[in-house]
Specification:
- The complex is a heterodimer.
- By secondary structure, chain A is mainly beta.
- Chain A has strands spanning about 5, 10-15, 20-25, 30-35, 45-50, 55, 65, 75-80, 85-95, 105, 110.
- By secondary structure, chain B is an all-beta fold.
- Chain B has strands at about 5, 10-15, 20-25, 30-40, 45-50, 55-60, 60-65, 70-75, 85-95, 105, 110-115.
- In chain B, strands 2, 4, 5, 9, 10 and 11 form a six-stranded mixed β-sheet that branches. In chain B, strands 1-3-8-7-6 form a five-stranded antiparallel β-sheet, with no helix packed on it.
- In chain B, strand 9 (about 85-95) and strand 10 form a beta hairpin.
- Chain B is globular.
- Classes of the chains: A mainly beta, B mainly beta.
């Protein structure tokens, strides 16, 4: 089945550590996105990538980094510079064209301990 | 500033009853409006996508309407089931010319279906 897979489902980070969230899709979608979801707030865009080896900052990119070495993969690193990383992180992908809906992964819940 | 406002914030109804969720937006220029269902701890799943020229679109027991003149949309759920308990998110897409994602997300309506 085609889809988008995020791992791990739950992740715990100590203060000062970097952690990497995985996102893999087999939908052959060109565009991929990372969103952060906090309670009572709408999804906020962290980074997005329209093609391989290219990515752009979203609205809240500070403290995060990404790479897009393969079409299928778009990992997100939460660095120690992100002061409030506890949140639910969602990865999404979409084909070209504005009328296609996004396919979301099942999310990773990151908690700072 | 583009905004998407959803109401109510939360809603509790009995199984089998109907309900309507509201979405008002100020996004311009408008491209399309999407409704997503998000189960707790899961990613959102698309229910409907509507463009400027579409007034209504159905997906099973879910029917979305769009009034582009008043910039309002609604999602009507018929004969609710326990599995409908979820957050429903309204997302409005802006004509961006291929740049950023151009999406504005509402905060969602948290719907609880009681037996």
């Amino acid at each position: 089945d085609g889809g988008i897979t995020q791992s791990p489902k739950y992740l715990f980070r100590k203060e000062g550590q970097n952690v990497t969230l995985s996102c893999e899709q087999n939908l052959n979608h060109d565009a991929m996105y990372w969103y952060r979801q906090d309670p009572g707030q709408g999804l906020r865009l962290i980074y997005y990538s329209q093609i391989v080896n290219d990515f752009q900052k979203g609205d809240i990119a500070e403290g995060y980094s990404v790479s897009r070495e393969k079409k299928e993969s778009f990992p997100l690193t939460v660095t120690s510079a992100q002061k409030n990383p506890t949140a639910f992180y969602l990865c999404a992908s979409s084909p070209p064209g504005g009328l296609s809906g996004y396919t979301f992964g099942s999310g990773t819940r990151l908690t700072v301990v | 500033k583009n905004q998407v406002e959803q109401s109510p914030q939360s809603l509790i109804i009995l199984e089998g009853k109907n309900c309507t969720l509201q979405c008002n937006y100020t996004v311009s220029p408008f491209s399309n409006l999407r409704w997503y269902k998000q189960d707790t701890g899961r990613g959102p799943v698309s229910l409907t996508i509507m463009t400027f020229s579409e007034n209504t679109k159905s997906n099973g027991r879910y029917t979305a309407t769009l009034d582009a003149d008043t910039k309002q949309s609604s999602l009507h759920i018929t004969a609710s089931q326990l599995s409908d308990s979820a957050s429903y998110i309204c997302v409005v897409s802006e004509e961006t010319g291929g740049g950023a994602d151009g999406l504005t997300f509402g905060k969602g309506t948290h719907l609880i279906i009681q037996p």
